[in-house]
Write a structure and sequence with these properties.
By secondary structure, the protein is an alpha+beta fold. The protein contains one helix and eight strands, in the order E-E-E-E-E-E-E-E-H. The chain has one domain: Beta Barrel (Thrombin, subunit H), CATH 2.40.10.220. A hairpin with a 4-residue loop joins strand 7 and strand 8.
Amino acid sequence: MTKKADGQDQRRHARVADPDMRLKIGGKTYRSVNWSLGGILVDNYQGELSAGSLLTITEIGPVGARKMTTVDIRARVIRADAGAGYLAVQIFEIDTPAYAVFQELMNKRMLLVRGADRTGNRPGPGRSPAAT
């Protein structure tokens, strides 16, 4: 991510907060704050990873799904603060099963946005149409 002169970021991939994603890192399951094909912000992170660490995400899936999908996502830690409970990772390699889950979640997001368009409401970041 780079910053424009006016302070706005220029992300290559737009972040999505809704629907949430579950993911497994180091044998522990976490929930996303937001995500894109370029990275994930992990909530309630408890671990030893620090900025620059390489990691593999081994499972992902929508929150509420019975089962997560086994994946091979290679990423690098951009920011980490176990005390504050967050981990920001940049994805640099994603396999086909992971891409399919991201696509499924993005399709669900588009349905939320389209539903909001029909009602005249636009959901804000991290909010479903019902919350606007």
